[in-house]
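Design request, tokens follow.
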């Protein structure tokens, strides 16, 4: 009886995985947007949500603190491989555009919070133009409540570009296109 239940459970899991993969890899018909594309497009032009996050030092940080700057809110996690791919780009963007009124806000979404994020930041260095550099932008601790205010997250990384006047310009689920986001940032500065 236990063997049958185990086999049934495995079949159910496999069917769910196949359904998920099929849905994520299905080709779209021309002119028909996916639910994710529709959600990302509908966010553009709306005011950024009012959120308060904790810094690693325990201080409250709000998006309003960055009003007047172009902000790229980047939801990430220490265990997320795609996040690690784009972190060097974010470091370079912060270096290049920070003095012009831009900032990346890294929102760490690890369930364990500071206990895993702080050691990660202490230890990890990223290859940026041949140099091993630490993350050079503010890292804040996120949670589901904050993610929900941004319309929820379908995966990591998810980035939201916000203009100087506090409006959402673009929302990207998955790895950002370095060239595309750079052009957007330069246009907004």
């Amino acid at each position: 009886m236990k063997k049958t239940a185990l086999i049934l459970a495995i079949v159910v899991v496999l069917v769910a995985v196949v359904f998920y993969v099929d849905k994520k890899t299905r080709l779209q018909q021309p002119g028909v947007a996916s639910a994710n594309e529709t959600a990302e497009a509908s966010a553009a032009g709306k005011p950024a949500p009012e959120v308060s996050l904790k810094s690693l030092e325990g201080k409250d940080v709000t998006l309003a603190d960055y009003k007047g700057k172009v902000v790229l809110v980047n939801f990430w996690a220490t265990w997320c491989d795609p996040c690690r791919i784009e972190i060097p780009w974010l470091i370079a963007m912060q270096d290049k555009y920070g003095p012009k009124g831009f900032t990346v806000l890294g929102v760490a979404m690890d369930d364990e919070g500071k206990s895993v994020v702080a050691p990660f930041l202490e230890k990890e260095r990223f290859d940026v133009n041949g140099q091993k550099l630490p993350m050079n932008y503010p890292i804040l601790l996120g949670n589901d409540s904050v993610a929900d205010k941004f319309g929820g997250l379908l995966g990591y990384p998810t980035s939201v570009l916000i203009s100087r006047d506090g409006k959402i310009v673009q929302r990207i689920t998955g790895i950002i296109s370095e060239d595309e986001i750079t052009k957007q940032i330069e246009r907004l500065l």
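Comment from the thread starter after seeing the answer: thanks! Residues 2-25 form the longest helix (24 residues).
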